[in-house]
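Hi support team,

I'm filing this because I wasn't sure whether my run with zinc ion finished correctly. The job status page said complete, but I'd like someone to confirm that the output block is well-formed before I use it downstream. Pasting the exact inputs I used:
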Amino acid sequence: MEQVTNEEVAVLLYEIAFYLELSGDTFRPRSFERAARSIETLSESVMEIHRSQHIEGLMKIPFVGEGIAKKIDEKIRIGRVTQLEELKVRFPVRLSELLTVESVGPKTVRVLYEQLDIKNVEDLEKRAREGKIRSLPGFGNKSEEKILKGIEFLKACKGRQPLGTVLGLAQHIRDQLRFIEGVKSVVITGSLARGKETVEDLDLLAITSLPDVLVKAFISTSEAIHVYQKQNTRVSIRLKIELNANLRIIPEESFGAAQQYFTGSKEHNLALQRLAQDKGLKLNEYGVFSKDGQTIAGTNEEGIYTALGLPWIPPELRENLGEIEAAREERLPDLIKHGSLRGDLQTQTNWTDGKNSIEEMGKAARELGLQYIAITDHTRSLAMVGGLDESKIQEQGREIERVNRKLDGIQILKGAEVNILKDGSLDLSDDALADLDVVGAAVHTNFNMPQDEMTRRMIQAIRNPHVDIIFHPTGRIINRRPPYAVNMKKIIEAAKDNGTILEIDAYPERLDLKDEHIRMAVDEGVKLCIDSDAHSMAQINYLSYGITQARRGWASRNDIVNTMSLDELLKHLS
Ligand code: DGT
Ligand code: CA
Ligand code: ZN
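And here is everything the job wrote out:
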């Protein structure tokens, strides 16, 4: 049995639709797409339906007929769909690869393949450089430029993956290894331990009395596809998710030193080594030593920092960006702690592009121990996701009131994610905005404005008295879309002048604000919020990535408004 998520099933059906379309089929692609959309919005797991009710159960899903149900069944039982494999042999175009290029959608891929025989990103780049794309019907110089930019951006991010796609797996591997015979301790180090927004590999350290047993367990984890290196104390493997994982076995007496060293960053370590030298000491991955070779520290991290005359420094700060000086002067920030959020101020529901109902989102937030959650569906100018207009917003408000009467232990706030239009105005009337508890404004269109225009556009929204928060302030999507050109310094100043909150969007591909911008905002005393931007119940869990990001930006509890109780928050917003 394959473990597949609803999202993967939907992607599979879209893929089949795409290849069927290439084969000249005009009717079936639409039915595959309808089924895919239906599965995307389903609140039950397709795997689960299949397990309990087989093909018959699948056929009860709206728009899933027998033919499509059989494809899903095949995928779940044997991990692939024969028809799709055959289609891919007939039409050897790499759809999923090409879709990673910004601005390239399935329709574009089809035209590029049919007109220019472009099968992969390499072909695409070649044709774009030759200037062949601009002359296709429906394309132009601009689209060709955009494609080249998208490819360049992809190349620059190659190899690094968002923290959110790696952390869960890393923790899973760590927890598995902890139960192996002889193991005393396993920790995650490297950029992952520092909570960096993207990581290149996974670095694990362990103490064990039976190294052979641990190495064997590590290389035979079901996530591994290849073993690079196998020594007694160091192993590297390739994981299915196209990432390397390194395990080092460390003697107990130098474990703290190794943990400190391999947590990094390299810059932080080099600065510490200089500090050690100045004190007449030597610091390396085995410990802190005096000139005559006496061991001063090594078993634990605190001991290393103490030996250098410093308090322990949280890993998120270890970038050599002033944390060592701050530690020496005892002015390290009291970083916001995991578990300290009381609410979430950006979530979407099935009123627009989210998957779950208002009530389901409320229950999920309550389950996580939150006191309040704002429903912030998109507004009308985002027609492609069914953005809400004034009357729909009113209708949604009544539904929120109904759910609030029904549910105890959670308060659902009326909100919206309004679109900041090209001229800085918003796509919802002032009257409608005034009725909402929380108004988040964000740029979702016209990304390619020059920096001063974009900055002016956003500042105008910041000045709007109805706007409480600027959502995902730079619009970047990690490994896919660069931030739009905006002067963050000016945005932060304007937010300060107008008491507008800036968001740290915890969605793992966004993490927007970036750490450096969070720090600028914190330094200016601008208030921030950490939101999940959840599009389903499960995604409310993303909040923890936002906390990590906030910690990397030196933020304390006081900097983050949704650590407040509901009463305090509502007072702050009004
Ligand atoms: P990454 O892998 O690019 O996401 O970032 P890191 O920080 O995990 O880097 P990585 O995996 O190359 O090395 C892990 C840690 O080992 C790094 O954060 C600091 C330490 N380290 C690696 N090379 C050196 C070095 O040449 N000097 C010092 N002092 N430390 C190093
Ligand atoms: Ca690393
Ligand atoms: Zn948004």
